[in-house]
Amino acid sequence: MASKGGSLGWALLTGRDGDLDPPSAWWRGPAWVKVILTTAALLVLVGLTYGSWARYLGGGSVPLIFFLLLLQLTPPLLVLRFPLTAVRVAAVGMVSSIIAILFPAPYALFGPSLSEWPLQVQVLPYLPVLAMTLARTKPGQGWGISVIAIALATAVGIVQIPRTGTKTLVWSLVVVAVTIVAGYGMQQRRRALEQADEAERTTVEERTKRTALQERALIARELHDIIGHHLSLIALRTDSARYRVPDVSEAAQEEFRALGVAAREALDEARRLVGVLRDTDAEPEHEPQPGLAEVPSLIDGCRASGIEIRAELSGGDVPAMIGLAAYRILQEALSNAARHSPGSTVDVEVRREPEGLTILVENGPPSRPAAPTGGDGVGLAGIAERVTLIGGTCETGPREDGGFRVAVTLEITGEA
């Protein structure tokens, strides 16, 4: 029902509170400050309203005055959670006030010939209720509310003509029109902010996906180099085995030949499948890929740039793919710490365990302001993507002290 804006044009009569959009966060300060300010505003309104109605209706109209006060103060208290209900109560309050003006009690002190102030004061809390409700409507939902508000404003002005001429009529229409425009202005601003937030989320998601694809392409190139190297060695050794190994039977030679053929077919198939992930626009990398042996050099380079690092390295021998992944993960985790926590000490631990290779990088809160980087977590997404493709677990997130933690375990299913 909420999506059918046009069918809710007369939302005041037919709509439900849940049909409107949720309220925007209009206050980000302490809740107690909001309570104090709201209470103070309501007390001021109570004083103004009671005084103006008491002057107009007389002391004997206390029950009626309190009834009008109740209708005046209820809508502001309801508008955040029950906006349409608040507007309905406000409409009843305005109609009741108009009736009280048209038919004053016989014991009124000043009678129907005095002052327009009761209606002006009565309408004050209804204006923000009207604006806040219109701000939460979807396009096409609020025009019925606007029409009824203008009709009530016109009625307020008409009943005051015998006492004030057309001044109150003009005042009422101008004030309500400005309130309606303000409400629709807040509606448009809220929708623009929501669209901007959605666009930002979409941009971040697209950037994360693109980073994941780039990470897959990088892993594909690394896989190609490592798998291709080992499969080529297998094919070469099986083809040459019948010449290197003496007294090889014909059956064994045929077996070696079949193994060589299978290795070459596996190499071709691996190249074809890895090519699905490869970035066809990227140039192949022929330089030796880093591994655990290069991690100390990586840490020394970070220290030379001013990062204080405490490292415990005990990785041992691991498969080349695991060593390369560990190097890349440490590289990104250290870069992340340098960008977002300048001046903090970074603890690095790499250890070999039965279930795999564990990598832990932790840093404390920054000791000086971090420079704006525009980062959106794509580097961490790259770490997660690498762990997903290789196998293992990845946990990243802030620490209670304001620092950050990256914990990764890479599964090792075979020895190097």
TrEMBL record:
Q: Does the keyword tRNA processing apply?
A: no
Q: Where is the Signal transduction histidine kinase subgroup 3 dimerisation and phosphoacceptor domain?
A: 215-281
For this chain, one GO molecular function annotation is: ATP binding
What catalytic activity does the UniProt entry give for this protein?
ATP + protein L-histidine = ADP + protein N-phospho-L-histidine
Keywords attached to this Swiss-Prot or TrEMBL record, sorted alphabetically, are: ATP-binding, Kinase, Membrane, Nucleotide-binding, Phosphoprotein, Transferase, Transmembrane, Transmembrane helix, Two-component regulatory system
User: Origin, by domain of life?
Assistant: Bacteria
* Entry GO CC: membrane
- On whether RNA-binding is a keyword of this UniProt record, the answer is no
Q: Which residues form the Histidine kinase/HSP90-like ATPase domain?
A: 326-412
Q: What is its EC number?
A: 2.7.13.3
Where does the chain cross the membrane?
A: 31-50, 56-74, 86-105, 142-162, 168-186
* Alphabetized PANTHER family for the sequence: NITRATE/NITRITE SENSOR PROTEIN NARX-RELATED, NITRATE_NITRITE SENSOR PROTEIN NARQ
User: What name goes with this protein?
Assistant: histidine kinase
Source organism of this protein record: Amycolatopsis umgeniensis
Q: What is the lineage of its organism?
A: Bacteria, Bacillati, Actinomycetota, Actinomycetes, Pseudonocardiales
